[in-house]
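Researcher: Next sequence.
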Amino acid sequence: MKNINKNIIKAISVLVFIFGISFLVSSIYGLYSLITMFSTFSASLPEAIMYLLWNTVAGVFFIYLSIGIWKKKNWARISVILLSAVNLFDGLSSMIISLIRNSSETWILWLNLVILIIELLIIYTLLLNKKIKKEFRA
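Model: Next structure:
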């Protein structure tokens, strides 16, 4: 049973790592767009730079967080719980807005639903599963 708990923790760590990598990839793409297509870039230069900085900092932060989860650091567990809760409410509001606007793009609703389920599982696992919590205190 202890191996299953370790694998669950590693899976959450990998998900957080992928999230961090996606921020960095977005930042690299934004930089490429800025360099190659600045004349058609819709944002002003300061906005573009802030976007790149934000994505880079967020990417590095989530990678650092994933390492903390992998090493079973309690601060990382609490951070992931809080960020998952924020993402959960953000996803719910996005779904509600899409439903109110009667969006014809149902794939967005399905994608949000899958993300919400993943966030709920992460919150449940890290917050309420006593065996997992014990792993972070060991």
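Model: The two ends are 15 Å apart (CA to CA). Helices lie at 2-36, 45-70, 74-100, 106-128, 130-137.
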